[in-house]
Amino acid sequence: MIFNASAGTGKTWQVTELYGALVLGGDHPHLPENRSPVPPEKILLMTFTDNAAAELRERVAAKMIAAEESADVDQSDLARSVLRHLPAANISTIHAFCAGLLREHALELGLSPVFQTLEDEERDELLDQVLTAEIFQALETDADFRAFCNGVSVLGGSEYSVIGTIRMLLEKADSRGLDLSSAEAMLPVPAETIGIADFQKIYDELTASGLSQKTVLDAVDALKQCLANFPHGLDGLKKFGRIKAVKHLSDELFELKDRYQTESQYADNFGNFQSFARCLGRCANSFAAAKRARDAVDFGDQLLMVRDLLKSNRVEAPDFEWIIVDEVQDTSRVQCEVIEALWRADSNLVICGDRKQSIYAWRSADPDVMPDLESWMAQRGEYATVPLKKSYRSKDRVIDAVNELFEGLYASYDALEPLGTLQDEKPCVEFLAADDEEQGSDDEMAAVARRIQLLVNGGEEWRPAFGHDGREFSEGTPVRYSDILILLKRSTHQAALEKALRDAGVPSTSGGKGRALFEQQEVRDLLLFLQAVTQPQNDLALVGFLRSPFMNLPDDEIVQLGWDGKTFDRAVLRTQFFETERAKLLLRYREQSGSKLASQLVREVVRETAFDAYLAGQTGGEQMLANFKKALDWLRAIERGGQVLLGDVVRRFERAIKEPPKSGAAEALLPDPQQNAVTIMTVHGAKGLTKRICFVPDISFGEQTDKGFALFSKDSTLELKLGGIDGGDVKSPGWNAARADDKAVREKESVNVFYVAMTRARDLVVLSGAGTSRVAGWMKLSEKFLESADSSVLKRLSYAEIPECETRKLEARNSKDEVVFQPLEIPKGFDRKPVTALVEHLKPTGQSLTPSGDRRAFGTIGHAVLEELAKNRWVGDVVELVELFGNGFEQSKELVDKLEAVREVLEKETAGGEALFAEHPFVLKRDDLILDGSIDLLAQFSNAWKILDYKFSNDTPEHALETYGPQLAAYKEAVGKMHPGDAVSAALVLIGETVQVVEVL
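The line above is the sequence of DNA 3'-5' helicase; the predicted structure tokens follow.
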């Protein structure tokens, strides 16, 4: 049975009605009569989110409770029996079902019965460690891989870097059930399908045409020369397709030329592409091994293992009479294969979904699963399709607009049907348009905020005539802020939206959902402090820190500090700021950075600067304080998980800002007795929600250009494209087709996301877009509708036509005397320290931290350059690396000279080594103390290891040994425990006026 359920048509009700009819043996329009009840343990009801599964279980329970009170004694007894068995009933997400099956058969799969399932963040952290190690190893040992990486970022934060691409391919492979252990075999084999005979054929047809136009004659001559010395001269072939009689030959010629050059270049560079595939395969194998070593699986493993278990026939599949799958349009290919493996010849499959609401292809959902299941049902024989079209959510005027808009966007569209018609209703879809092309997102969001205030506090003319009161549409129903939902396709302009709402006095919240925590300014201020402490050369972080409530410097004062007489100069800012009294605070925290945890530094700076008092005095200060505290809790969780080195914590924080964690990244949820605030969410986060009024701003967005260089084709081949090899782009033969398929899926999904956004509202939908000279995004999709829709369906308003509404604004409290707040309680650190804490009290105290001689900056850049050189076995341009990591560092010449000398020394020290490990992390337990750190350079020899620790210092060898001996002893102890039986030596590399290697006994 297939429920084709359009938006708002009661899909969940249909699913639970069917479940109730099955377990009670009751009547149902799509089931045979006089059936026997089906025991709950014989039914599998699956969906794809925990919330949806909880709702299904709750609704089934409610139906059973209602049936228990029936006058029919048999029916009442049966309902009571179902209720007793309901806690153990198979109503869950597909992942939860698979996890239970894995527990049951753990030993057959090589797992212990107590295996753990990695949460998303744990999995991502482990994966990053594995990928980094494997990529470094490949860079050290594989010359072809180094050549491959010349044209791309390797470990950058971009999703298009090598590490980002491998991460994406692993996730895609999991969702499609692909085995990457032999990824090299997934590359298309180089083949010559185009040859000189194909070009000769074009030449013959062209000469036979008898045409005498100059472009044709020039083309004949160019082809003749090319054929005489094939393939030279291909680049000189020009199009001649303006003449209709030979246009097809011109098109065919240039297709042949492109295919020939693609195949030829791919074959020439195949070794480089193989090196990437080898690295991908090793990453997949190492990640699997790392999870096995921890007796752990991730959510992808759960699906793959259960699929393989069921298909192998090693165990008997669960015996379900009925399998019901809700939200099937969100299913991945491997989830589909699990469903197929459970679906036996004598069992019944019911799927419920809507192809128009398939919006998770970016999260590996496969839009072809629902049609594939429908096709398989048809092949099995008798089945029923139940179209659900009647909307129980939206009023008729909203439905009229939705139908008119999307009938023109889908090749086949099932129109929604309203429950009834509301007479004398106004148009219930609005479009807020810019007055001119110059009005940008700030103007748009201000118009949105004014329109919201008019809905809540304006006259009746600004509200729909009928509003949903919780039971039905009633005339004159007032609007509260909590009735309004703002749906975003992307978060690019969310900050502008939130500011506009604050300025207009509109309370808002993310509703405890989404990933907005790391987008809040108070959370980013926390990162700016940590960056200013740990990254002396990060001038942008320094400026942000000075502007933050920690320092609260006005912009004009910052500009004055950086003014060189003509313009703002960051080097001047560093010099002049560090000569001020205020700089002492930052310098003091920099000095403590080697011995204290990030959370300890934050606790102290909050108390010293009254940061929490400042937040409490701002508009929405309670929310800001809650967000800041939640970010600190996240920071503490990172430290408890083993990351205590300040630099590592900051990098983790930077990643979270760029790509928020999949869970726990929503704004802090405040207790609000009235719950009266506008909710802001992404469209993806709002799937399944209903609100009276929905705003859909920013519809004039442009789609992002895809810069990726790897993807899987429909046939599961690994297709690659890379720039920079031999002076031009090189791509695999199937790249263009695979990219076109991928683009088609994304374009179709964009329409689906728009459909979901337009179908969340009961009463009113308000669209808006900024001024633009180029129509793009959803504005382009809806262009015809916005221009031609009847005024009874669509109301158009310019920004200028939306007046201010007289209402009390949210007031900021400016005086600290008015502030009432609870100071942040930040828990103190635990007994876990960075290894540098062993020597902090012994360090020389005479080193200058002024900008002219900032040894910390000197050492930070030096360490980064030496790390990069070590990865490449000491090959690299030191001048370029210092420029890359120093970004205008004033003492670059001096540093380059020193690093050239250091490179020469380190080459000798590591000569004959089998492998070099730069910034090698370790954890060492000593009684109740856990030491965490990283070794600057660990060189592996045959049955021996050598530790080299860099110190940018003019200290004497004797005093340096006395100072840093405990630290080096911890390094030796950690390496010795990791490699028992091997010899371990250690040395300090003192980098001062000269370079000295001091052996540690």
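Note on the example: Confidence is low (pLDDT under 50) at residues 810-821, 826-830, 845-853. The domain at 427-509+675-801 is CATH 3.40.50.300 (Rossmann fold).
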